[in-house]
Design brief:
- By secondary structure, the protein is α/β, with parallel strands linked by helices.
- The protein has two domains: 10-113 and 196-281, 3-Layer(aba) Sandwich (Rossmann fold), CATH 3.40.50.300; 123-194, no CATH class.
- Helices cover 30% and strands 22% of the residues.
- The protein contains twelve helices and twelve strands.
- The protein has helices spanning 57-64, 104-109, 121-124, 131-142, 147-160, 166-169, 179-190, 209-226, 237-243, 261-266, 271-278, 341-346; strands at 15-26, 29-41, 46-50, 73-83, 92-95, 114-117, 197-201, 229-234, 246-251, 254-260, 330-331, 337-338.
- The strands form two sheets. An eight-stranded mixed beta sheet has the order 6-7-8-3-9-10-12-11, with helices on both faces. A four-stranded antiparallel beta sheet has the order 2-1-4-5.
- A hairpin with a 5-residue loop joins strand 11 and strand 12 (337-338).
- The longest helix is centred in the middle third of the chain and has 18 residues, at 209-226.
- The chain is globular, with a radius of gyration of 21 Å.
- The N and C termini lie far apart (49 Å).
């Protein structure tokens, strides 16, 4: 079981990412997938990492757990995981970015302290092992229990995530379950050892609206029960509005705006954040015309534009500045940060 936090640990971030840079060296050159990314995750809170496909959200999550596909590597930055104080020992901080990808310490963290819900459960679950085999393996990897005890715990986990008849379905294969039940099984595996942080990578992809709402409600319930921090990776701003406490908007591997969820929805300051919000259908809108779109597409990281990465698609671009000068992420409020030359010019 994870250690019980002392009172002094409550306001300390559980995980701090500082100036993370992840690269993929290729024959054609070096691709910068994540550039200078920083954020904090607190116990009991949900941080949503938002952006279009190809913005570096999943690579950021995989960098935290050192699950990068080769030849990807962390070139710079820190990923600081804080273990809380207990009656037996004081607090400990581990820089995950400095650990060996296949070493015992990172294997202890994966699943034990940080759980991961993969984007597509059908591709992530083993087709030749039952749900029970995969669950009990995760449990026995981090806990000293017998096979019988692990199976009993696995049944309890399946029941906790809302899978009916868990005694029977524990012996099912992934392809024998519906999409919603597969996603619940993935959540059970991610929570097998009660991690303090859960990374949910597009947890509602390819699910119908009803099942999506059930999965999000389940995550909220489990977070409240276990005081978990959640890093939610999504491009669906409707999911963000229902679930997140804080939001970090990513574009081309960089965070361009970061604030609490109310500020992002009611006072967005970066042109990219505004464009994302305008592309959403409004429930009470009287005009039923076409939704606004963002011109162009996210460029390949190998063809990163000079200056502001969003300037080729920005409707408010300042010619001669945005295409030459790279903005920096700066505070414009108590908990609001924006990376935009328009904000710098207005200050």
């Amino acid at each position: 079981m994870p250690p019980t936090p002392m009172a002094s640990d409550v306001c300390t971030p559980l995980l701090s990412v500082r100036r993370l840079k992840t690269v993929f060296p290729l024959d054609e050159g070096t691709v910068i997938a994540v550039k200078d990314v920083s954020f904090d995750l607190h116990a009991g809170r949900t941080l949503a990492l938002v952006g279009e496909s190809g913005c570096g959200k999943s690579v950021t999550a995989r960098s935290i757990l050192r699950l990068l596909d080769r030849p990807g590597r962390i070139e710079a930055g820190q990923v600081l995981l804080r273990r809380p104080s207990t009656e037996q020992a004081g607090p400990e901080t581990i820089d995950l970015a400095k650990l060996d990808d296949d070493g015992p310490r990172i294997r202890e963290v994966r699943g034990g302290e940080i759980g991961l819900i993969f984007q597509e459960p059908m591709a992530s679950l083993s087709p030749v092992h039952t749900i029970g085999n995969q669950l009990t393996e995760a449990i026995r990897l981090h806990r000293d229990v017998s096979k019988c005890e692990a199976r009993s715990m696995a049944i309890g986990l399946l029941r906790e995530v809302g899978i009916p008849q868990p005694q029977q379905r524990i012996d099912f294969y992934g392809f024998e379950l519906s999409g919603g039940l597969r996603q619940r099984a993935m959540i059970a595996i991610a929570l097998a050892c009660r991690p303090r942080l859960l990374i949910a990578d597009e947890p509602t992809t390819a699910l119908d609206v009803t099942t999506q709402a059930q999965i999000l409600q389940l995550l909220r319930q489990l977070q409240a029960q276990h005081e978990m921090a959640i890093l939610l990776i999504t491009h669906d701003l409707g999911v963000v509005a229902q679930t997140a406490d804080d939001v970090a908007v990513m574009y081309l591997g960089e965070i361009v705006e970061c604030a609490d969820v109310d500020t992002i929805f009611h006072d967005p300051r970066h042109p990219y954040t505004r464009a994302l919000l305008k592309s959403m259908p409004a429930m009470h809108a009287t005009n039923r015309g076409r939704l606004e779109t963002i011109a162009g597409s996210v460029p390949h990281p190998f063809q990163r534009p000079s200056g502001c990465p969003f300037h080729p698609r920005c409707p408010q671009v300042i010619t001669g500045q945005c295409d030459c000068q790279a903005p920096r992420l700066r505070a414009i409020g108590e908990s609001h940060q924006v990376s935009c030359l328009l904000e710098e010019a207005g200050s």
